[in-house]
């Protein structure tokens, strides 16, 4: 323990105990990180406070942040700067698409739905990277969450797959920009995990079943496994890695 001792790390996107960001929180706490949380909704904040208390995990700061607003992003990072000063890591674990676009044909995607999915799920990484960079004066590590639907056609994932492709390309461009400040930018591509967001995509059970059937490890991944991989990226162990998309999916992505 202690890989993240004295590191100030911002975690975005804990909605409840099933959130991937909650699995990440537990891993980061175990390795001694000081945690700062951002939530969009008051409801998520309440749930998070309760979870932290139950697990005896201290939070250095909690701020509200809606990635659809530049003002909200600016205010949130200002508040973090005023209270914490320097940060060393940022976990971006947010995405959104309209439920009605996560079924049927991708060709039916509306203009609005297309833009919204990209704004919340991909542009948000660009916007928070820019804001976080100002606080990462000792170098840093930024990590986002993506999915195989960015690389392949996965039934019903539709617009979210296209937004994740944009997110993964952004990881590479941001890695190039941030490298000179000793800030690394990487992504984890997790297998299907039953969360609030996952419920929005039709056919979740089939997706999970096919992993058990076909993935080399023949079992699904969980939030804790993504948490430990995220911990690696945030720690000095990954000091030579940037612009990478690491699959934490029981190896499913290598199977044809
Ligand atoms: O199978 C899965 N669950 C996978 C998820 C497989 C691979 C990747 N992912 C990705 C998701 O696409 C997402 O990027 O992991 C990330 C986290 O997803 P999750 O843990 O499945 O989802 P959930 O528990 O529903 O959390 C999503 C968060 C919520 O957090 P808050 O704290 O705001 O309640 O995204 C948030 C959502 O509310 N979110 C926003 N946060 C800030 N501003 C916004 C917004 N505008 N919209 C949604």
Automatic annotation (TrEMBL):
Top-level class of the enzyme under EC nomenclature: oxidoreductase
Catalytic activity field: a 2,3-saturated acyl-[ACP] + NAD(+) = a (2E)-enoyl-[ACP] + NADH + H(+)
KW NAD (keyword) present: yes
Gene Ontology biological process terms, A to Z: fatty acid biosynthetic process
Oligomeric and partner information: Homotetramer.
Protein family according to the UniProt entry: Belongs to the short-chain dehydrogenases/reductases (SDR) family. FabI subfamily.
Official protein name in the record: Enoyl-[acyl-carrier-protein] reductase [NADH]
Lineage of the species this protein comes from: Bacteria, Bacillati, Bacillota, Bacilli, Bacillales
